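pasting for the record
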Amino acid sequence: MSTNIVRLLPDSLANQIAAGEVIQRPASVVKELVENAVDAASTHIKVVIKDAGKTLIQVIDDGIGMSEVDARMSLEKHATSKISQADDLFNIRTMGFRGEALPSIAAIAQVEIETRTEDAELGTRLVVEGSKIKLQEPVATTKGTTISVKNLFFNVPARRNFLKSEPVETKHIIEEFQHIALARPDISFSLYQNEQETYHLPATKLANRIVHLFGETYKKQLIPCQEGTDIIQIHGYVGNPSYAKKTRGEQFFFVNNRFIKSTYLHHAVKSAFEELIPKDTFPFYVLFIEISPERIDVNVHPTKTEIKFDDERMVYSILQASVRQALAHHTTPAFDFEQNINCDPLGLQEQPRQKSFTTSTDRAYSSFKKFDNPSVNQQEWEQLFQRINVDTDSTTPIHGQQAQLLDLENMLSTVNEVSSMATMQENIQPFSMLTHEGTDTAAKMQLHATYILASVKSGLLLINQHAAHERILYEKYIEHLQNHHAGTSQQLLFPHQIELNPADFALIQDYEGTLGTLGFAIEDFGKNSIILVGYPAEAAQHNPKQLLEDILEQIKWNKSHLSLPIQENAARALAKHAAIQPGKKLTMVEIDSLVDQLFACKNSTHAPDGRRIWVIITLEELASLLKT
């Protein structure tokens, strides 16, 4: 009996295996087909998808087309017109070259190809199903190529079951479309989803293409960036630092017009923005690197989004220098981070320049928050600190208000150093057990419209009002979602029409049910627009449109950094932005209610993102702060 067990796999099975690397989801099909259309010297490319690409992906171009023989050969593995010998791998200027895309797609879908060259009277029509050619015939068609991919993964049900929801898959398709549309602003593109036009992009300049893709607001933030040497040319745009976001995703690198992903190069750009943006935010940029093909290797991965340079340090240095130079010429001395929810959701508005500021650092956000100093003029403070620094033994009397404020500032700045974890754990009790016997509401006060101070048995309780309210709302929202109990919605007298970019519109669709339970009443207005009819009653003090946009940004940040489930993500995002913000003055009734609700929570010590809500400064610690 023969013991030979090694056998050659059938082509159809080999193609299915190869497709696992090249075609991971519908967006992969869009990428490969549109890149082929770009390589075919097309001037207009139309993309049509249905059901997030699961039912249909169609790419129509007006490029050079294919002959009957070429159309048939394009379905063979490793058949390509881009290269012919090994040396060509080091001189690649086309998007595709491996000859894997079409045969891989044909192995896992039902594919129809119609194509005609300019000098041919008739074109060719091919119908392929699971790598098997079902039909090949002449057809009357326009110059160019139309490829229709139907029922993706029809013969690999396990792969089809692993696809995400339609909004998620649509988001990935839009991202791939954006990459190619940014790379070639000289080509006209259009995208249709379920027979509705999502994008209509005329051939134009890069700046206009960016605005057409991402919205009119990008007109305000684009800073041109251009630098060149004999070896490398860099051009494109970076975003104004004041528009930096908490979410990664709007960072685009192109090497010889090919979109790539590079953590190393991203670090070069991020370091150029150092001290201009908070550490946990990301700037916008669309940067093109032109370099001789001999100095790079794009044949690293089948998706061709990774690349190797023969001298990465050189590229890093030139890129960093060019971005720094662009920012130096176009940025203003001060950036208003407080107007951008992603940079500093807890920041207070910066006051006129004649006032002084102290900086407060928050673990979850940036150190760019600015708080007004107490209402003592600058000259008095400078004289006060000068007297303290020059002569600590001075008996010169200090104005009562200045002394109190100075002690309070010192106390707050050193509380984390003098407070021990043992004291914290000892005092984690219901608030009613912490207060002095017989203490009434007069024992509480608000400090700088940001903190709540309360007298407790062991000393002084300091509460962050925003973090406290965020915890209260979060637990309330989670309970609503778990019990399927709809929150109270504040109906708008005049509903807001909100235009979203396609990715955010897909995100809204994915979270529509959850947001509805939380109190948002949203109606589809068509073509990436929604009508906001109502919003959560707890957030009545907020601008409804701004609140929804803030929550979308927070959801995206949570998704990229925390990988939270949908309900958890939405509850956190809404709680963070619906909570009372620093700077909001509270009445004694509101203070009492906030404190009572906080200590009724399941977790009253930490906000949902881990920030500490309150701290106790013991009597001993207070006494030590006032020692001479």
